[in-house]
Amino acid sequence: MIYRFQFRSYRRKFVRSLTTNHGKWDIREGIILRLTDETLRVGWGEIAPISWFGSETLEQALDFCRQLPEEITDEMIFSIADELPACQFGFESAYEWGSEFFSIPNTQFFSGLLPAGEAALNQWETLWQQGYRTFKWKIGVDAIANELKIFESLIHTLPAFTKLRLDANGGLSYEETNLWLRTCDNLKANGELTLEIEFIEQPLPVEQFQQMLELSRSYETAIALDESVATLRQLAACYQQGWRGIFVIKPGIVGSPSRLRKFCHQHEIDTVFSSVFETAIARKASLQLAAELSRNNRAIGFGIDHFFEQEETWFQSLWNDL
Ligand code: MG
C-alpha cells in the first residue's frame, strides 16, 4: 500500500505546568501525521517525544519527517530505526488508525495525577468527584521529611479502598528509597491503612537498576520501573536482567506498537500504561494498546484531561490550511 504523507508540528501550553523531579514543564511540542491511502481513507498519528525521558528529540523527529518523500509505503513505516521510538509509535498508529472498534473506558479505570507537595491534600477531592479511584502523587520533589509528613496526612485523608501510587521520577537516594519502602511496609503491617499503596514508581535513577532489583526483592511494597523502561529495548533488557515487578509503559515513546504487543504476549509482564501528555490523537492509539495489553486490573495513567484546553478547535486550526 502507498500512502500520501503530511505532517504538522504543534506547540501546546499546559493549563498548569507540571512539576516532577526532572523539573518544570510548560509546553508540549510534537508532530501530527496524516496518512491518506489510495482509497482516500485517512489515518492520524502523533509523535510526542520526551527526550529527557529517553526518546528522540523533537528536532530528530522533525528531521526524520522532513527527509521522507510525499508518498510512503508500509515497509518504510515498519522499518523506522529503534533510535526513533516516538516516530515508530506515531507512524504505526497512523497506519492502524480506525482498524479496530474501541471505546474509552470510565474514569474509575484511570489514575488521576495529584499536584506535587501539599496541594495534593486539597486537589484529590476534585479528582474523586470526577470518578478517579487511583491517584498518583509525585515524590522526590521536596525534602523527604516534609514529604513523609504530607504523605501521613494524605493516607488519612484519601477515602478507603482508593489506590495511591508514589512516583519519584528517579529522585530518591538509596537510603531514602529504603525509608519510603519501610514506611509503606510498616503502615500495611500495622493494619493502619484503609487504602492501598499500589507501588513506588522509579525511586532511583536509571543507572541504579541493580539496587532497585534488590529492593524489589526485599520489601513487600511493589516497585514500578518507568524511566528505566522508556523504550522497548530498555524494557527487554530489564526483563532479561530479572525484573519481574511492574513495568510502566508509555506507548507514545516506547516504540513500535506491533513489537510491544508481541513482547507483552510472550512474557506476560505486569504493566501499567501511562501518558506522555499527548493530544487526543496519540491518546486514542495509546488507550487502545492499554485496553489490549493491561493485566492485573491496574488503572491506566491517562488522567490528564485537565491539562489541555479546547482540543477540537486546536486540532482544526492546525489543519485548516489543507
Ligand atoms: Mg513516572
Describe, in plain words, how this protein is organized in 3D.
- With 322 residues, the protein is α/β, with parallel strands linked by helices.
- It folds into two domains: 115 residues, Enolase-like, N-terminal domain (Enolase-like, domain 1, 2-Layer Sandwich); 198 residues, Alpha-Beta Barrel (TIM Barrel).
- It contains twelve helices and twelve strands.
- Helix 6 links the parallel strand 7 and strand 8.
- The mean pLDDT is 91.
- The structure holds magnesium ion (MG).
DSSP helix count?
A: 12
> What's the helical proportion of residues?
25-40%
Estimated radius of gyration:
20 Å
Percent in strands: 15-25%
Shape: globular
**Overall tally of domains:** 2
Quaternary class: single chain
Order of H and E elements: EEEHEHHEHEHEHEHEHEHHEHEH
Question: What is the CATH topology assignment of the largest domain?
Answer: TIM Barrel
* Name of the CATH superfamily of the largest domain: Enolase-like C-terminal domain
Structural class: alpha/beta
For the record, the CATH architecture of the largest domain stands as Alpha-Beta Barrel
The kinds of small molecule bound in this structure are: magnesium ion
Q: Please tally the β strands and state the result.
A: 12
Mean pLDDT across all residues, rounded?
91
Span between N and C termini?
Answer: 23 Å
Model regions low in confidence, pLDDT < 50 over at least 5 residues: none
Q: Which CATH class of the largest domain applies here?
A: Alpha Beta
